Amino acid sequence: MPIPSTLTTARNAFTAQRAALIDALFEADQAAQKFRDAERILDPTSPILADLELTKVQKEAAAVNARAAVRSATQALLPEITTWLQAPTSIVDPLAKAQADIGRLSAQSPAVLFPLRIETRFEGTKLKLRVYPDDIFLNRHETALTVEEQAAGQNYYEELNKPGSVSEQANWRDMVRRFGSLRSAYILRAMLPAVTSDAPLPRGIPVGQNLTLIFPDVQSRSGSWTRPAEALLPDRWVVMLRRGNARRYVLGNPIPEPLAVTVDPGASPADQSTLPNGHVVDDKARWIIDFDRAVDVGMALSIDLTPDDVRLGFDRVVVFGLKTSLSESDTAFAIEKLIDAHHYTRGVAFLLQGTVTNNAQDKPTVFPPADDAGTQSFAIERNTPLEDVGVPTDRFNPLPCFPPQTPTLRRSMGTTGQSSSVFQAAPCRTSTAHSRRGTSGRSR
């Protein structure tokens, strides 16, 4: 089913307002810095200082307005998703409505499943259920670069380009010392230069070639975070309650896009709300600690129970959802961005079965792997084994879980497309499920 143009327009408006906010925050930060610098050297009565202060105030006001515009764009997007989810008025059964959601999908499109955590509690004649997204959903990545990051990325390639340049690994160690290995990899990807306007270098700069480098025009950001960590989730959750052969389905409210999962470091007073106990919290993240707000944003359900439900409980509770309000291509792109976000913030890898991922007293995990002076990360991010197939140095290669004696496997995964081949074929629609066995009024 085609995505309505009004929904696409609302989503594009949000994206544009978010980009405008990043620009406004950067300009406000720059104006404030110029004013602080001038304060240290100019007379307090200087007209130059007065002009700088006025600019500072104007830019700060513009940033406040830009933040309000993002809030309005987010609020305008949710009704469009709600309208998209509305089944014909003749359909009243929750299962039929869920089936109508599935009916919007193409039979030719596969789905990717991500895990969830659910919490349940019986309170009188109600089952209260909360849904928490797994870490794989969370996007903390800042794609815009600070002025310092841009200068460092440009200097990295310029130093490599000089005749008689030192080894690239020495430059990498300096980057890692300043920004960490994951952020450094992203900076160098974002700042990859070209030798002509239409011929970007696919694998970085050949050392000592003294080429004329053309650096990309990237978005700048202030040194602070521009947004909270966010999750792109299914349009709504469907809960299946099973006891024996009897099944019952309940639908949650539409979920905002994107959903904040941490506080916004730049939240203004207009973005905050006061809890009954007097504590002030970021309103966007209030759902995490307020059950009623979680119900409002689709991350919790309060389900009415029959006397048999209370007495017998349920054999299984299943929660799943579908993101049908994105087109196949947009969903694939969203998941590619999500995997990229993990790559450049916390790291991502495909692990062998049985790999230890949590620390125990007698068996610690090897993740994240040790990185002595950037040696390991250089081998992963810059010293790619895929040079002969022309893919960028920081794509497809971070697969430390595969044994080194299987280069053919690593190479075959990297040559099937311009984005991660494992996900290029899969993420045409986002589907998520979690199951809990044996839920009853006594055990949960």
Can you tell me about this structure?
The chain is of the alpha+beta class and 444 residues long. It folds into three domains: 1-86; 93-138 and 225-326 and 429-444, Immunoglobulin-like (Sandwich), CATH 2.60.40.10; 329-428, no CATH class. Helix content is 38%, strand content 16%. The chain is built from twelve helices and 15 strands. The protein has helices at residues 5-41, 47-85, 94-103, 147-161, 168-179, 181-190, 291-296, 307-312, 328-343, 375-381, 407-414, 421-424; strands spanning 111-114, 116-123, 126-133, 138-139, 194-196, 199-200, 230-231, 237-243, 246-251, 259-260, 272-274, 280-282, 300-304, 316-323, 429-437. The protein has a five-stranded mixed β-sheet. Helix 1 (5-41) runs antiparallel to helix 2, helix 4 (147-161) runs antiparallel to helix 5 and helix 5 packs across helix 6 (181-190). The longest helix has 39 residues, at 47-85. The radius of gyration is 25 Å and the shape is globular. Mean pLDDT is 82; it is low at 385-444.
Short descriptors:
single chain; 444 residues; alpha+beta; Immunoglobulin-like; 3 domains; five-stranded mixed beta sheet; three-stranded antiparallel beta sheet
Summarize the topology.
Layout lengths: L4 H37 L5 H39 L8 H10 L7 E4 L1 E8 L2 E8 L4 E2 L7 H15 L6 H12 L1 H10 L3 E3 L2 E2 L29 E2 L5 E7 L2 E6 L7 E2 L11 E3 L5 E3 L8 H6 L3 E5 L2 H6 L3 E8 L4 H16 L31 H7 L25 H8 L6 H4 L4 E9 L7
Parallel strand pairs: 1-15
Antiparallel strand pairs: 2-3, 3-13, 4-7, 5-6, 7-10, 8-9, 8-14, 11-12, 14-15
